[in-house]
């Protein structure tokens, strides 16, 4: 029998989130509504928090997501209001993350440009 008809394990939910700019110009995790195409903030429902720690002193490779988006966006010479729209579109293109939800939102997560998305303990 094919694997899809007789899976070895129960299929886990693979949600696609995007670290993108919202209308206020702040980075947040959003998910696209498949029916309406609208982008909805999902940080609270997935318990994802931004890690404010600075890991650059301990890292040999410094990552800066907003800076990289600006470099790859091709927004040089654009008006400021155009730059915001370009960054929002590029962040939705490059900021995709597949989130395997094992335990139905019971776990809290932190996101850092240096470390990525990782599981965190009970206190945030």
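^ Assign residues to that structure.
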């Amino acid at each position: 029998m094919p694997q899809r008809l007789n899976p070895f394990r129960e299929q886990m939910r693979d949600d696609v989130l995007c670290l993108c700019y919202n209308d206020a110009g702040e980075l947040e995790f959003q998910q696209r509504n498949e029916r309406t195409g609208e982008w909805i903030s999902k940080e609270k429902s997935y318990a994802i928090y931004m890690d404010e720690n600075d890991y650059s002193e301990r890292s040999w490779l410094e990552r800066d997501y907003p800076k990289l988006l600006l470099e790859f966006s091709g927004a040089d010479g654009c008006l400021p209001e155009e730059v915001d729209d370009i960054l929002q579109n590029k962040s939705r293109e490059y900021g995709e993350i597949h989130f395997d939800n094992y335990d139905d939102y019971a776990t809290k997560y932190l996101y850092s440009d240096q470390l990525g998305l990782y599981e965190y303990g009970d206190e945030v």
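Residues 13-120 form one domain.
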